Amino acid sequence: MRIGGTLAGFLAALVLLDLVAGNSTLAFILAMGALLPAMFLMPVNYGAAVAFITCTVSMMYAVSGEEADFLRYRVADNLVGVAVVCGVGVVLWRTSRADWWRVARLTAGSLAAATASADPTRYRDELVTRALQLRTETVEAAALPDAGPAAAASWTYTAAAEDLIRALAGPAEQRETGDRAGLAAQLRAIEEHCTPDGTTDTGPPRAPESATRAGIDVARMTTAIALLHQQGTASLPRME
Question: Which tens digit of pLDDT belongs to each residue from 146-184?
């Protein structure tokens, strides 16, 4: 999308550069006009956003009278950048089913510690970090070519964990109080069962019977883990 958007934007920029013909004021107006849709399109379609960004860059070069540098280097720079990113990705990206289970286990452990604490907010930074890690692993696992509907349980686990984090360490008016010892024990059981093969000595964790918001979140996490173990290797795709 980066390369395609750059090429499309480059072709459009050739037309715009011919249109402005050295008029720096018109070039600046067109640059600002192209920047707005680029920002709006960024979360919608990255390729289209890059096309508008390329037009914006071309007009800013025209404002300074250096459009020749834009024509000479823009596409080449992007090709080099994409090649570097692809190379880094090949070296570092090792997404696998085991990665998701490892982060799910760490998240359950952090949640258990916070739930058992008299002041869960002390764990806020740790919990936010776990939430980011878990969401990243879930997104990467879901993006693998052979991901299927069975991976939905991993999203249920992620959403429930994030809800529980808000209930424990979110804004004061949203926090839950009361005896959380049972939920902490249940989270420790979930932590123990967060393994790719599901082999433990105690059998699958049982969902707690609780009508509280935190109890419902823990029950959702428990159910998700049980479903992922039942679905086996189909639950989350493996990339070695």
Answer: 666 667 888 999 999 999 998 888 777 666 655 678 889
CA 28/CA 59 separation, integer angstroms: 6
**What is the C-alpha to C-alpha distance for residues 4 and 7, in angstroms, rounded to an integer?**
5
3-state helix, strand, coil in the chain (%, to 5): 75, 0, 25
Q: Determine contact, residues 104/194, Cβ cutoff 8 Å.
A: yes
What residue spans define the domains of the chain? 2-92, 97-234
Which tens digits make up the pLDDT trace of 177-232? 556 788 898 999 999 988 877 655 455 555 555 568 888 888 899 989 988 887 76
Long-range interactions of 126-132: CB distance < 8 A, separation 24+: 127/165, 127/168, 127/169, 128/165, 130/103, 130/106, 130/161, 130/165, 131/107, 131/161, 131/162, 131/165
What's the rounded Cα separation, in Å, for the pair 15 and 86? 31
pLDDT average, residue stretch 73-92: 76
Phi and psi at residue 231, to the nearest 5°: -80, -15
